C-alpha cells in the first residue's frame, strides 16, 4: 500500500446521543459493539434477520431496537453512524460502498481499510476515559498496553474525576477566580491532596468539603 493511501485516524470523543447508530449483524461481534455503545448512552438499532440471545434480551428490555431484515442500502439512510459487524466480506464491502455514496460514517469490525473511524482500546472510570490506539494496525498490541495501564487507575478514580469536575465548575463559575494564576494555584493544590486516602477514610460525601478548604486557602 502506498504511503499516501494509508488511513490516519484523528482521535476524538463524540456525543452519540445526538447521532443514532445502526449496527449491522446479530452475532457476538455485534453484541460487543452494542454493549460498548450502551456505556455511552447511544441510540442503537440492530439490522439482522437473526440475532444472538443476549441481543434479544436487550431488545426485550427496550435498550435497543431491531430491524429483522437482511442488509439493504435503504436501511442506512436515516442513520449517521454505521457499525458493520458481520462475518461476510461481501456485505462489508457493499456497506462500505453504500456508506461512501450516502456520506455516512462507517466502522467495519477488524477491517481498518473500510473504516471512516476505528475504535480504540478503552479504560473508563466514570467520566475519566483513557483510550489506546495503534491506528488500527495492531489492535492486539493496543489492548496489551491498555491492560498494563488498567491497574494504574483503580475504580476510585471514578470518584476523583467527579471531585475534579465539581472543583473546576466552582472555579469557572465564580468571578473571583478569574485570574489564570489563581486557577493554576487552585488546581495545583487539588493535586497535593491524597484523594485515595481521603475517599478511603472519610468517604466521597465528606471529600467535597476538602474542595472548599482549598478555595478558602487561596
Structure explained in plain terms:
By secondary structure, the chain is α/β, with parallel strands linked by helices. It has 2 domains: 13-119, NAD(P)-binding Rossmann-like Domain (Rossmann fold, 3-Layer(aba) Sandwich), CATH 3.40.50; 157-216. 44% of the residues lie in helices and 13% in strands. It has 7 helices and 7 strands. The protein has helices spanning 28-38, 53-60, 89-102, 139-150, 157-173, 180-192, 195-216, and strands at residues 21-24, 44-47, 65-67, 81-84, 105-108, 121-125, 128-132. It has a 5-stranded parallel beta sheet with strand order 3-2-1-4-5, sandwiched between helices. Strands 6-7 form a two-stranded antiparallel ribbon. It is elongated, with a radius of gyration of 22 Å. The termini are far apart. The mean pLDDT is 93.
Major β-sheet annotation? 5 strands, parallel
Give the tally of β-strands. Answer: 7
Helix vs. strand class: alpha/beta
CATH class of the largest domain: Alpha Beta
Unreliable runs: none
Q: How would you classify the quaternary structure?
A: single chain
Shape: elongated
CATH architecture of the largest domain, by name, is: 3-Layer(aba) Sandwich
Give the ordered list of helices and strands: EHEHEEHEEEHHHH
Q: Roughly what fraction of the amino acids lie in strands?
A: 5-15%
What count of helical segments does DSSP give?
7
Determine the N-to-C terminus distance.
57 Å
- The helix fraction, in percent, is 40-55%
